[in-house]
Design goal:
The chain is α/β, with parallel strands linked by helices. The chain has six helices and 13 strands. The structure holds 1-O-pyrophosphono-5-O-phosphono-alpha-D-ribofuranose (PRP) and uracil. 5-phospho-alpha-D-ribose 1-diphosphate binds at residues 79, 104, 131-139, 200.
């Protein structure tokens, strides 16, 4: 059964408040999204399985611990998820990276797929899907469905800001997926934007409008 974790680390809370500010420019916004992703990754990998390994230090042989099984994969939902990739890879540099392209139709708010390229062995990996925003949940629910269609069994979802509506939809559609959230906000407005949120994450990361 999947769990929902709202990060309470002070550095994450501090940085999330920073990127909410409307006056923050793209350069600083992008840098801080990367830092938040890095900190969230550290917290969200606490329970990864370890295995014992025999190693030899300059002094003697000993038993150490290393990550068990195949390495991880990170899958950003384009575009905004790209902003979290570098931070994730700082923590887990051996991870492979897949990409899922979805945009939200502004009228229906339903996700529209335009790209999907995943590591060939992604079904054997633990996959971290990343996207700064979980609003209606349409995009993340669809991205995770696409991964499950490819046989991926171990999936975690990480977002910086979530609306309760999106969390509920994710729990209903993908009850097996753990969800890691930087901040859980109040609600969605009539245009499907998170309140108080931070506006359009993709536009703020890439300086578009
Ligand atoms: C944003 C965001 C999520 C999605 C969340 O992407 O990055 O992918 O909206 O909304 P939802 O939970 O209601 O689906 P957007 O569609 O604006 O595309 P972009 O990343 O290319 O800007
Ligand atoms: N996508 C965003 O980028 N921001 C929101 O508030 C909702 C969806």
């Amino acid at each position: 059964m999947g769990n929902v974790y709202v990060m309470d680390h002070p550095l994450i809370q501090h940085k999330v408040s920073y990127i909410r500010r409307k006056e923050l420019g793209s350069k600083d916004f992008r840098a801080m999204v990367g830092e938040i992703a890095m900190l969230m990754c550290y917290e969200a990998t606490r329970d990864l399985k370890l295995q014992e390994v025999e190693i030899e230090t300059p002094i003697c042989k000993t038993i150490g611990k290393e990550l068990a099984g195949k390495k991880l994969a990170v899958v950003p939902i384009l575009r905004a998820g790209l902003g979290m990739v570098e931070g994730m890879l700082t923590m887990i540099p051996a991870a492979k990276v897949g990409h899922i392209g979805l945009y939200r139709d502004p009228d229906t708010l339903e996700p529209v797929e335009y790209y999907c390229k995943l590591p060939a062995d992604c079904d054997e990996r633990e996959v971290f899907v990343v996207d700064p925003m979980l609003a209606t949940g349409g995009s993340s629910v669809e991205a995770i469905r696409m991964l499950k269609d490819k046989g991926v069994k171990n999936i975690r979802f990480m977002c910086i800001i979530a609306a309760p509506e999106g969390v509920e939809r994710m729990k209903k559609e993908h009850p097996d997926v753990d969800i890691y959230i930087g901040a859980l906000d109040e609600h969605l407005n009539s245009h499907g934007y998170i309140v108080p949120g931070l506006g359009d994450a993709g536009d703020r990361i890439f300086g578009t409008k």
